[in-house]
Amino acid sequence: MAFFDPLTRKVELAHYKAGNMSIETFIKFAVYDLRTYFSKQPGDIRCCPVCGSSLSRSNIDPSECVSNDLSDMRLIPMHDFSHLYECRTCKWWAVRESWSLCEWHKDFDFLIVGEAERTGTAFENTNQKVMPWNLVLQNEHLYASAMPLTDVLGKLFLGGEKNSQYSEPIRHG
Fold first, then answer.
1. Could you give the CA distance from residue 23 to residue 118 in angstroms, rounded to a whole number?
2. What radius of gyration, in Å, describes the C-alpha atoms of the chain?
3. Could you report the per-residue pLDDT of 68-92, keeping only the tens digit for each?
4. What is the residue-wise DSSP string for the chain?
5. Pairing with 26, which of 16, 104, 110, 138 sits 20 to 30 Å away (CA)?
6. pTM exceeds 0.90 for this model
7. Residues in Cβ contact with 100 at an 8 Å cutoff, skipping those fewer than 6 apart
């Protein structure tokens, strides 16, 4: 079972079984709202922000949060995509999800960015591999504390137009 700490944006996987061992680990990640940064929906991420290598992209099942929205037919939901981006060089990863609730005229586009260090490796046991993004995507409230996208990440997207009203958040510390 995974527990989410919104202050540190870490998912703690308590007592994960790996063979005969019980492991406690943390997955560091950040969640960004692309709709506040871009005035029109951008294309894919151009390259890895850590090492500059090209990324692989694959379709994945929607997160628990998106699945919950899609299950409420009164909202007339529409799932655009759930993509996993992976850097095979440095193990950086990201998940991007886009969906709409037509009844509310609400469009969503979020990016989850995982920390390259240690999180690119699967936690293995004899029966299955647990990938870090799968643990993060189990959170029903994943997008509730999304942050504005930074200019550094915004520049990595193909074809998006930056919202003229957007200003980079002030970082303290």
1. 14
2. 17
3. 988 888 889 889 999 999 998 988 9
4. -EEEETTTTEEEEEEEEETTEEEEEEEEEEEEEHHHHEEE----B-S-TTT----EEEE-PPPHHHHHHHT-GGG-EEEEEEEEEE-TTT--EEEEEEEEEGGGTEEEEEEEEE-HHHHTS-EE-SS-EE-HHHHHTT-TTTTTTPEEPPHHHHTTBSSPEEPTT--PPPP--
5. 110
6. no
7. 77, 78, 80, 106, 107, 108
